[in-house]
Amino acid sequence: MSILETRVQPAAESFRTAEQEKVAPVKRRARRPRILIVTPELNSTNSLKVRSGRVPCAKAGGLADACTLLVDSLSEAGADVHVTMPHFRNLCREPVISRRLHLCEDREFYYRRSVYDGDANANRRAALVFQRDVIQHVIPQVRPDIVHCHDWMTALVPAAARKMGIKSLFTVHNLHDERATLAEIEDRGIDAAGFWDELYFDRYPTSYYECRDSVPVSFMPSAIHAADQVNTVSTSFLYEMMEGKHPAAWNLIDVLRAKFSVGSASGIVNAPSGNWHPSADPFIAKRYDCDSQQAGKLANKLALQRACGLEEDAEAPILFWPSRLDPVQKGCQLLADILYRIVSDYTALGLQVVFVADGPFRPYFEQIADFHGLRHRIAICGFNENLSRQAFAGSDFVLMPSAYEPCGLAQLVGLNYGSLPIVHRTGGLNDTVRPLGQDRGNGFVFETHDANGLRWAIDQAMQFFIRSADERNPQISRVMRESAKEFSPDRAARSYFEIYEKLAGRSLY
Ligand code: GLC
Predict the structure, then answer these.
(1) Is the beta carbon of 233 within 6 A of some atom in ligand 1?
(2) Å from CA of 15 to ligand 1 middle
(3) pLDDT tens across 419-469, in order?
(4) I need a surface site. Which of 65, 146, 476, 482 has the fewest CB within 10 A?
(5) How many A from CA of 492 to the centre of ligand 1?
(6) Which residues of 239-268 are buried (b: 16+ CB within 10 A; e: fewer)?
(7) Cβ(405) – ligand 1 distance below 6 Å
(8) What is the reported pTM?
(9) Bridge partner list, 35
(10) Can you spell out the DSSP letters for 364-380?
(11) DSSP one-letter code for 121
């Protein structure tokens, strides 16, 4: 019998009347929507069921953490999730075998030592060949109902997906963007003529041939324009971009406003993964929760001071710098301006500063510490995840004076560990940190982005620190308790699930 022939109805079935057939329609469960996550970065995860072990880590920043949490949450919820990313052979030495992980092949990223290269042209080439593989091989093979793309490296995919009749969600994690002409895109093997009219050009193109060589395509505006739904990683960041507050994102203003006006753009704050919590952290000296934080943080403070060569002082307030020392985004120059002053003004308290971070500004902090002979009170350590965890646990305050911050994860991790954030009021920091008061708020927020603003917020934090332990500890415990609820991984995942279900028109499970 050919598969096209139908079988004869079994006898029992044939007794059904036409009426019965109407009231008892055959219940056929709709197939779960299949989601394809398209990302340049992913953190180590077990949830893709890789036969040879864990999916290796290709991480440059918070984007990797956000995507990993999403993949883990979708897998845990029983959703049909697939992931595609470049095959960074140097970053994943083990052969990776998973039905749900699709590694894109090209020598452009085989030999890299990090996700992004110092050379912008090389990054653009890598983005194009990655997307060529996604558009030509991965999507036709996986046949997803929804593609979820992350940042500029994936920004041509929504336009191609639209032509294939596949719904897409695009997430903006940061401001960085690139441009390329159609000629350059096609040289990398992408058949852009098939979807060029869904792209966004620097100036309005009259025809494909007129603009092919001379009018560049802007990547992120193209993605925002072509995607069915767009989100940024906080609501404030979305509004700031639409209001033109970020000059680097001038060409996103109109497309974002257009999407927002039809209800297709929103902000979803990221969440730290569940293992970034002091009660479940195997890498800190002593685990604790909101009820045992006083003793827990004290033991971890001493362990941190020992680990990074600081004077052991159980009473000293510790300020922790957790982010890349990047002066464009993270505001480290503000701290460099006042570092010596705060350490000397708060000598009586024994104030200490710990950096666990890499980046171009590191030598300046080293020079300040050495010049003033302050290595016993200022520790400058390269990035190391385990030490970073110990610093969240052992510090009292987390410093995040970012010039702009799409979301930020470190302030949320700080809240989980009872290390209160000191932040500039921008983007995701604005959405997650509120000035501390009696039984309300969770940190210290300054408005004007300069060294005086930061100094003011640090002074506020010290005012809090010198209060009696009976006043201080209940507040820290409350902040820990409240933030575990407010910024839970479930909450972030649920917001994405709602978008997927809206786009697919049916439930994920
Ligand atoms: C980028 C942003 C950061 C955000 C992260 C994850 O690294 O700079 O604010 O938290 O992406 O979305």
Answers:
(1) yes
(2) 63
(3) 999 999 999 999 999 999 999 999 999 999 999 999 999 999 999 999 999
(4) 482
(5) 14
(6) bbbbeeebeebebbbebbeebbeeebbbbb
(7) yes
(8) 0.91
(9) 81, 146
(10) HHHHHHHHTT-TTTEEE
(11) H
